[in-house]
Design a protein that fits this description.
The complex is a heterodimer. By secondary structure, chain A is mainly alpha-helical. Chain A has one domain: MetI-like (MetI-like fold, Orthogonal Bundle), CATH 1.10.3720. Helix content of chain A is 80%, strand content 0%. Chain A contains eleven helices and no strands. In chain A, helix 4 packs antiparallel against helix 9. The relative contact order of chain A is 0.15. The model of chain A has no long low-confidence stretch (mean pLDDT 89). By secondary structure, chain B is α/β, with parallel strands linked by helices. Chain B is built from 15 helices and 17 strands. A six-stranded mixed β-sheet of chain B has the order 6-7-8-3-9-10, with helices on both faces. A four-stranded antiparallel β-sheet of chain B has the order 2-1-4-5, covered by helices on one side. In chain B, a hairpin with a 5-residue loop joins strand 16 and strand 17. In chain B, helix 5 packs across helix 7. The radius of gyration of chain B is 27 Å and the shape is elongated. The relative contact order of chain B is 0.10. The chains are: A mainly alpha, B alpha/beta. At the A-B interface, helix 8 and helix 9 of A face helix 2, helix 4 and helix 7 of B.
Chain lengths: 248, 398
């Protein structure tokens, strides 16, 4: 069966989400396009000058912070499940937990005071914020691999590295991907705060709507963030199905 | 040691110990054990006696604290364990098939590690699946979750045989399988082993499985101390101490009868008569013999009826219609266990030994069996007394 067809089977839910998102997007565009706008609204809701660059920046912030989360959290999670470093798992998880416990606003401002108000500062802040779910899921995913499967592999002469790459990681993929999906959605939401330190993103539209008391502007920014979050979540869900090893 | 070069053992454990840090008693203490080429050695003992640890010391899944492991004449105590393990098949109770790989990929694990060519791997996988009774065209591309427990363990055995290792280590391979399937797998395994002649170390806690599978059995007590190491029939006939006696449990004499065959019995004469003889002659034969029953044969010497004194009072009927029909018949290659079972159902308490055509070869009486048991015990005792004289390192009675 072609991969596309196999994907379709039993995954009707996955096909509904993009339709809903598309309809909501069209409705939003029609509503905003047809509304009577004053000067400030017309300027804030300008597509090619404002909304589109902000949306792109928002996506960039999300992608970069998620990228760094993957680069840091997955290898760290692997290291912390190796017998030799297992004793560090507890302390590191505590630190990662506190990373998420610090108020986002506070973390962002603290980092800005230290590193300056740049795009990179925002990415660093969001990376710290979203590490926990991926780190924890990587560790849980590797820990829940049936020990007898690893024992069988090692007992037939697989080296540690080989057992990790061809047994443990593939079997942990579903759990790790669930963590990545969570991190992505967190980052879409967090990126709406990037405007606070000059990082751009759709937060600017929301902010200007709030400041100038223009409900249409606020609503448009918020709705676009929500639609972006849904879209990213959907893409991650598709990736989960595609990358999940067969036979599980 | 009185080992000559021609009978160099496949595996030799030389005073191997395993002590886990923080534990007062060793898991394995100074174990010395030779495993001959082509034999099935069963390690059996109660839970926690260290039998699994001992098995895992051989492929160094557990590193020994002390002692040496000699594999095929080579000291492997210090070699790269990954390379060593590719030469040793390994089957565990949980099977441990890789759930994300097809059956073919599972079976191909070791050949892949050894870098075989694709065509050779593919041919080998099909050969192995065929060997363990999994039709390659049906099962090759399936995933482990689509197999039953018995099929999965067959696949586990095929995987262990992947690169045709000389040695197979099996840790309670049939332990988690239902009794009927287990029995079938054991029989298939014995058939396979009679062709393959691998050197196998087999761990179980089930003494009956040990008796069935093992050429030799090592009964282990705590810290993997060998209580007795011998052929199953010797252990059954002569448990060296109370520990072994308790462990093999009740019915050891009965189990021991499974290893003896009818054709090796010396049968004493039994009163018998042709079916067309007269009643008076029959009574005379019966009176002269010490037995209480008379066996009536047909023209081809096939046993027909059991007749006793009171039956012969019925002079109105021919001999072939008197008494009870003969049902307990065994062939010369039947085990004494089966023979005894037949005797218990027989009216006369005897079993008739017949050849392929059904003609009588002799009659087994209970005395013949008790003689055998006595002889087995005496032989086993003598075997141990001789060994004691030569001060063998293992398996001697304390």
């Amino acid at each position: 069966m072609a991969p596309g067809l196999r994907l379709l089977r039993g995954n009707v839910g996955l096909m509904v989400a993009p339709v809903v998102i598309a309809i909501a997007g069209v409705l939003l565009a029609v509503r905003v396009g047809g509304a009577e706008k004053d000067f400030s609204e017309a300027s804030a809701l300008q597509w090619s000058e404002r909304l589109w660059p902000q949306l792109r920046r928002h996506i960039e912030l999300t992608m970069w912070s998620t990228f760094w989360v993957l680069i840091i959290a997955i290898p760290l999670g692997i290291l912390l499940t190796r017998p030799r470093l297992k004793f560090l798992a507890g302390p590191v998880l505590t630190v990662a937990n506190s990373g998420q416990a610090i108020p986002a606003y506070g973390l962002l401002v603290l980092l800005a005071a230290w590193l300056g108000t740049t795009f990179s500062t925002a990415v660093i802040a969001f990376t710290i914020f979203a590490i926990l779910p991926v780190l924890r899921n990587t560790m849980v995913g590797l820990d829940q691999v049936d020990k007898s499967v690893i024992e069988a592999g090692r007992g037939m002469g697989m080296s540690r590295r080989r057992a990790l790459v061809s047994i443990e990681l593939p079997l942990a993929v579903p759990v790790i991907l669930a963590g990545v999906r969570t991190a992505l959605v967190i980052n879409v939401g967090m990126a709406a705060l990037a405007f606070l330190i000059g990082g751009g993103g759709l937060g600017e539209t929301i902010n200007s709507g709030l400041k100038l008391q223009r409900d249409l502007t606020t609503f448009t920014g918020a709705a676009m963030v929500a639609l972006l979050a849904l879209t990213v979540d959907w893409i991650a869900a598709v990736a989960e199905r595609v990358l999940r090893p067969r036979g599980l | 040691m009185n080992q000559s070069d021609t009978t160099e053992p496949m595996i030799r454990l030389d005073r191997v110990s395993k002590v886990y840090p923080g534990q007062s008693s060793p898991a394995v203490a100074e174990l010395s054990l030779d495993i001959a080429r082509g034999e099935v050695l069963v390690l059996v003992g109660p839970s926690g006696c260290g039998k699994s640890t001992t098995l895992r010391l051989i492929n160094r899944m557990i590193e020994p604290s002390n002692g040496r492991i000699i594999f095929d004449g080579e000291d492997v105590t210090g070699v790269n364990p990954d390379l060593l393990r590719r030469r040793i098949g390994y089957v565990i109770q949980q099977i441990g098939l890789f759930p994300h790989m097809t059956i073919a990929d599972n079976v191909a694990t070791v050949p892949r590690l050894l870098g075989w060519k694709k065509d050779k791997i593919r041919a080998r996988v099909d050969e192995l699946l065929d060997m363990v009774g999994l039709e390659p065209n049906v099962y090759r591309d399936r995933y482990p979750k689509e197999l039953s427990g018995g099929q999965a363990q067959r696949c586990g055995v095929a995987r262990a045989l992947g690169a045709d290792p000389e040695v197979l280590l099996m840790d309670e391979p049939f332990g988690a399988i239902d009794p009927i399937t287990r029995d079938r797998l054991q029989n298939e395994f014995l058939r396979l082993q009679s062709e393959l002649k691998k050197t196998i170390v087999f761990v179980t806690h089930d003494i009956d499985e040990a008796m069935k599978m093992g050429d030799r059995i090592a009964i282990l007590k705590e810290s993997s101390q060998i209580a007795q190491l011998d052929k199953p029939e010797h252990i059954l006939a002569y448990p060296v101490d109370d520990f072994v006696d308790d462990f093999i449990g009740s019915g050891s004499t009965l189990k021991g009868l499974s290893f003896e065959r009818v054709r090796d019995l010396e049968l004493s004469p039994y009163p018998m008569i042709r079916h067309n003889a007269g009643h008076a002659q029959a009574r005379r034969v019966l009176d002269e013999a010490p037995q209480r029953w008379l066996l009536v044969l047909d023209d081809m010497d096939r046993p027909l009826r059991w007749v006793n004194d009171s039956h012969l009072d019925r002079t109105d009927r021919p001999l072939r219609d008197l008494g009870h029909p003969v049902r307990a018949k065994v062939e010369p290659n039947a085990t004494l266990h089966d023979t005894l079972e037949a005797m218990l159902t027989s009216m006369a308490g005897c079993a008739c030994v017949i050849d392929k055509r059904g003609s009588l070869q002799g009659v087994v009486e209970i005395e013949a069996l008790t003689d055998v048991i006595r002889r087995l015990r005496a032989n086993a005792r003598k075997h141990y007394e001789d060994e004691n004289g030569q001060s063998q390192p293992t398996g001697t009675p304390s």
